[in-house]
Amino acid sequence: MHPASDRIERKVVLKVPRSQVWRVIANAEAFGQWFGVALEGKRFVAGEWTQGQVTFPRYEHIFWNVQVERVEPERLFSFRWHPYAVDPEIDYSQEPTTLVRFELEDHPEGTLLRVSESGFSHIPDTRRDKAYRMDSRGWDEQMNNIEQFLAMNLKKSAQG
């Protein structure tokens, strides 16, 4: 495996203050709304698992299951999960996980959000390439989703 393919990195400048970005990342219910997971009544707590049904079309059969690793207000949120764990016939629980990190920093136009997912080199060979490829595409979509979600919320609040 090429060393660069152990890690996916994305970044986007969101035209809202860091506190607003933090709210839609660290609040499980808001996170679920843009990420496509039913997380009503759930919370993200370091060291604990958070689960919910995926609501994204064609993936509704997936049970989203992450272990929250770090919650550092308005700076860092991270969790571990099994990448591209989409086959209901496979028990992924014995496989290693990847680490997903959301890092926020101030930017002249709002907030710079960096998202990374690392640890693909530990995923079984039979799944590694596809998990990397599919999660890479997924992060492209999710960066667009959070941007659209924040823009929609900004528009709603401006309308009163």
Compile the SSE list and pairings:
Layout: E1 7-14, H1 18-26, H2 28-35, E2 37-38, E3 49-54, E4 63-72, E5 76-81, E6 98-107, E7 110-118, H3 125-159
Antiparallel strand pairs: 1-7, 2-3, 3-4, 4-5, 5-6, 6-7
Helix pairs in contact: 1-2
Gist of the model:
The protein has helices spanning 18-26, 28-35, 125-159; strands spanning 7-14, 37-38, 49-54, 63-72, 76-81, 98-107, 110-118. It has 160 residues and is an alpha+beta fold.
Descriptive account of the structure:
By secondary structure, the protein is an alpha+beta fold. It has a single domain (3-155), classed as START domain (Alpha-D-Glucose-1,6-Bisphosphate, Chain A, domain 4). The protein has three helices and seven strands. A seven-stranded antiparallel beta sheet has the order 1-7-6-5-4-3-2, with helices on one face. The longest helix is centred in the C-terminal third of the chain and has 35 residues, at 125-159. It starts with 6 loop residues before the first strand and ends with a helix. The model has no long low-confidence stretch (mean pLDDT 94).
Assign the CATH superfamily: START domain
- Please name the CATH architecture: 2-Layer Sandwich
**Biggest sheet: strand arrangement:** 1-7-6-5-4-3-2
Provide the gyration radius in Å. Answer: 16 Å
Strand proportion: 25-35%
The domain tally reads 1
End-to-end separation in angstroms reads 52 Å
User: What is the CATH class name?
Assistant: Alpha Beta
Helix segment count? Answer: 3
User: What characteristic shape results from the CA principal axes?
Assistant: globular
